[in-house]
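Possible regression after last week's pipeline update?

I re-ran a chain I had predicted before the update to compare outputs. Posting the input and the new output here so someone can diff against the archived version. Not blocking, just want to make sure nothing changed silently.
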Amino acid sequence: MNALWLRFFKSAYRREPISGFIAIVGLVDLAIGGIDQNLSLSVFGVSVFGIALALRWWQIQNVPEQSQSERPQYILPDRSSQSPLPMLKPSQRPSRNDRS
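New output (post-update):
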């Protein structure tokens, strides 16, 4: 059960960090209020979680759609205008371990 909650929290936080953080705070307040049987903290947790869901919905609605016909613009050219570097050959000098 813990792994499932951890996966849910990670995925919620990675998608939208601000609304994910607010939702996690609301759920924690709700859990603490439920355990302590504190009605005001539970109501506060539910309201904060509701605000987080509304914020997430608002962010999803404001995402502009990208057209498929636009190609991405690359800064670097496809091919380099310079010639490739020459291949290096191993040195003919003996290594330090071979010197006696």
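Follow-up from reviewer: compared with the archived run. The two ends are 65 Å apart (CA to CA). Marking as no regression found.
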